[in-house]
Each structure stands twice: as C-alpha cells, then as structure tokens.
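Pasting two entries for a bug report.
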Amino acid sequence: MSNVVPDTPPATVLLVEDDAGIGRVVRNGLRNHGIAVDWLREAAGIMEMLEARHYNALVLDLMLPDGDGFEICKALRRRDIAIPICMLTARDALDDKLEGFAVGADDYLTKPFAIDELAARLQVLFRRHPAGGAVKHWDIGDLQIDTRSREARVDGKVITLTRREFDVLAYFAAHAGEAISRERLLDSVWHAEGNVASNTVDVYIGYLRKKLAAVSASADIQSVRGVGYKLV
C-alpha cells in the first residue's frame, strides 16, 4: 500500500524575468489561473530559491542582465535538478528553440504571448512531471522516495539511480498499484523524445528491478499481462 503525502495547493512556479512589466503581467495572470508565483528579476538568486522551496516549474527568461538562460538551464541539468523549465524569450528563430530543448528546457514560449497559453502549457508540465509537482514523498513498503532530494531509500540506504531511473521510479510511485502501459511511460517520462522505442521502457524496468532486488526492497515492479507494469 502506498502512503501519499500531498503538498498543499496551489501549484507554485519560480519566475525569472528582468522586465518589470512582463513580470507583473505573468505573476498576476498566473495567479488568476490558480498558480502561485515567486518572482526574481535576475539569475543570482535562482539556486537559493530552488533550495529553499519546492516549485512545480521554473519560468525562465532567456536574456537576463546577469546570465544567459541557455547556460542557466544547462547548469541546472548538470546538477541533476529536474524541475520542469519553460523558457520565455523574444528570440523566435528555430535554432534558438532547438538550442533551448537541447540544453534541457521542457517548453519554449516566444514573446509576445498570451497568459492563457502560458498557464495551459504549465498545466501540461505539471501533469507530465509528477515528481516535480505536488507530491514530494512516497512510502511503498520499505521503499521511500523523496522528490525534493531526488533520493530513493530502503531502510535508510540510498539506492544509486540515474536521472532517468529516478524519474521512472517516481512516476510508478505516484501511481502505485496502477497498471501503466509502456506508451504512457514514454509519453510521461520520456515525453516522446525522438524515436524512443517501447522496449526502452523494458530496459529501464530491468535496471530498476535489479537495483531494488540488490537492497532487498519489499517494493517490486510487476509485469501486467497485456498492459505493462505496476509498482506494488
């Protein structure tokens, strides 16, 4: 049985935008959509804010007075910080968009934009990234998963996981006991990246099963005939 400890609503995003007018519009507009906003006008405080509070997403301006959005995004991903990132920028060239995705952005919205569209895109990110969303911690048997620290433990012992392995395990934990298809995992964890084959899911399930077995975890990823897998 899973014991889910929910975060309190509403969803909260960290907005990093140096333009005061745009910042106020985004902050007030997202609040009208039920999304709380903490607003920074420079890059310097990003890490401090991310370490101090749990955010469902980061809305990041590409051109900041003290930093480049591409480099900031790249640095966050190097540190294995998996928060969903939506970039905001006036740079609408295809090469800029492709670079944004290449360095780890999850979405890219060009200025000018409609607040309704930004809110809708953020809601998609919240659904696709449950580990970066409302739930911070799960207990499934003796397996403990903490999405803030991005750690999985069994009886206090940390299980060494790659970023993708953690994302897969966290998704299963968020839906413990529920049969999940390979296609759903690919869409929710891999986000249909390129031409990822469905057997990629099987490979990662194999990795996770071995690592759970190595620490004698009571939690197990079971096959569900004709569907996919479930965490029990």
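Entry 2 (this is the one that rendered wrong in the viewer):
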Amino acid sequence: MENKILGLHHITAIAGEAQRNYTFYTKILGLRLVKKTVNFDDPGTYHFYYGDEIGTPGSILTFFPWEGIQKGRAGAGMATEIGYSVAKGSLPFWAKRFGEQKVKHQLVAERMGEQFLSFEDPDGLMLNLIETGTTDNRQPWETKDVPADVATKGFHSIVLTVRNSTATAKVLTDIFGYRLVAQEGNRYRFVTDAIATANIVDLVEEPNGSMGINAGGTNHHVAFRVKDDEILMAFREKVQAAGLQITEKIDRNYFYSLYFREPGGILFEIASDNPGFATDESVAELGTHLMLPPQYEKSRRQIEDVLPVIQSES
C-alpha cells in the first residue's frame, strides 16, 4: 500500500453527561460502543468509542464526557459538522425517528448534489446523515430499532471552518494528498482517492466568523488515517518539513498517534490502523468492560469509584 492518508480515522468530541451520551449514540443513533476506557490525560473521565462492529477506522466517533462541563460554541478554528453516510432512501426513516425521539433536526436539504439531514446530539454537537452519491459497501452495525438498510455506514465527511482557507487547504493537498473537487459559495470540497469512503473534507471559509469555544457539544480534534505506525512516522517528517510543530509518536493502545495544529487552528491527529480494538477484548465483548491503559490499572478501584455508572439498558 502506498504511503498515503486513507481518509478519516476517527473524530473526537466533548460531551456532558456520560449516560446521556451513551444512550443517544447507542440507542437512538444505533452505533456500537466498541471501547469504554478513560481519557489518558484525565483518568477521572471516560473515553467512549462508538463505531461499527469492530471499530473500523472511518467509523469511529469518540467522546470525552465531562460531567457538568459548560456548553461550547462551534466556530472558526474548529471542526464544526460530522457527516455520516447512509443508504439512499433512508432519510425519511431518520426524520421520523428523530421526531419520535425528540431529537433536534432540520428538514432534508441538498448540498454538493447530495441529500442530507442535519441534527444535533443532546449536547448540541452538529451532525449530518448524508445519502452519498457514491457506492458505500461498508457493513453497518444494526440494532433492533435501527436495521441495516438505514443504519449509518461510517463517516462520509468532516466540515472544517476557518477564517482563511489557504493554509489549511495547503495542508490537505500538499501533505495529505487531497484534491479540490467542488465549490459551493464559501464551501470547498476536498477528496482523497486513496480510499472510497470517509474520504471527504469540506473546508468552509468565514473571514469574519467568531472563533469556536471548545467545550461541551463541540469537536476536539479530527484524526486522519494511515495503514501503520511506519507510515505514520513518514508523515511526521512531512509535517515537520512544512514548518509545523508535531508531537512524538504516542501509543493510544488501539492505534498510534501524532498531533499537530494546522494553520487555521484546528487540532489534527494522524492515527494508525494498528493494532485495533480487539487487542484487550474479543470482538463479541467489545465495549462491555472498562479497559484501562497499563499505567492506570493499579488505580482501577479508585478510578471506578469516580466514574459514573453507565446503565446499558437505559
């Protein structure tokens, strides 16, 4: 496989109440909780990973649920909308479901030639369900309430909002290998041909836009995907050669990561496919146990006493 960015790996956002977050994404949106662990930098807070059956890169939405956190504000210098791919003809199901479940949502609209349905999670995070114009053969996770023919297949796209798009676009094209394929007003669509899904970045330029406030209901960072940690380190050299500061390689147990802030202010991560989520739990058991990184295992009892209890059938 070539030394390329393979679209989106995961997206990480900030939530408030952990139980509310878990219930929304597993019961209403129908995702699988593939890993329940803690924030490696703040073990008194959960880190939830939602995705398909095995947490395939390109399907993984993660959250830091900080109880009582103030509400943030989406704006410039931030990833502002998350797009999920769904099958054609599925949006009426979701509009009906959101109405029944009292989920805040908009009418179905069209953008870049695709039908989409915008909605918000309980913390105000902005998401879209998009009937993609290309074939998406990914196998979705299904539940008794969300059957496979309408379920989310994984990411379609991410929207990045910046005051000036030039330098951010240069990172996407010159370092990550994306290309500009379309424009609607102040929205520029970039796509990578290295993979067929989770491969779209929409760059929205708002010169006078208010800067985002990173707190509850906003995205923390966007992770782009590479095959393994050898390719990861090749991209570290590329980022450094572009004059940007980037971290050393960090072991996140389920993938290896690098972090850097692109010129528009958005925190980017590059993450590897290896080793995956079934390293400390079987595929059948994914998300059913609290999995701690080795450095916190000796403090398991104290950590469990602090974390809120999650009722899986709520």
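Dev reply: Rendering is fixed now. As a check, the viewer should reflect this: Residues 229-241 form the longest helix (13 residues).
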